[in-house]
What we know:
Layout: H1 2-11, H2 16-20, E1 35-47, E2 55-63, E3 67-68, E4 71-81, E5 90-99, E6 102-105, E7 108-109, E8 112-113, E9 116-117, H3 120-127, E10 152-163, E11 167-168, E12 175-185, E13 188-201
Antiparallel strand pairs: 1-3, 1-11, 1-13, 2-4, 4-10, 5-6, 5-9, 5-12, 7-8, 12-13
Amino acid sequence: MLRAALALALCALQLCPAALGGSQPPLLVERSGSRRLSKVGGFAWENCGDGRDPVVLQSLSVAPDPISIPGSLRVSAAASSSKTMASPLKAVLVVEKALGDLWIQLPCIDQLGSCTYNDVCTILDNLIPPGTTCPEPLLTYGIPCHCPFKAGSYSLPASDFDLPDVELPAWMTNGNYRVRAAVSSGGEELGCVKLAFSLQSQ
Length: 202
């Protein structure tokens, strides 16, 4: 779940390659009305399972706050799983934006927003082809980058990642956001994490 949670959190911001240690090409084709993401701040998280989920995110620290983009991101995290997670791993993201006192759910457009990913394992395979050595610092700390994820404890000490330029669509405007990411297999929820952050674009 550590790997999946970090991937989903940053994929929600279209920073998947940075999260997964892969190459960093332009993440969106620049189009009319698009915005360049400049800062991400106010990051917070919590588990949102019913207390019986086999996968629990125990800690997650992201610095600096705010995060400048492009720039450097330092992440530390720890997670535990009492169950092996194997393909297919379904991930459901619900992304909401604050509008005054209301929270408005954003639709899924071009794989950004409130989207369902039928198999996180396939996403990981596309970013890091099977047979490829897991990138640093995952390799050093024994964190797998492909399914299955064996039961046990995983820990990522404070590690630095370089973040590339990111283009956001015009509809993803400045403001406060929250994301609920739930991972399941065969209809059984394995883990759930809620994230909150603010976006500032130019």
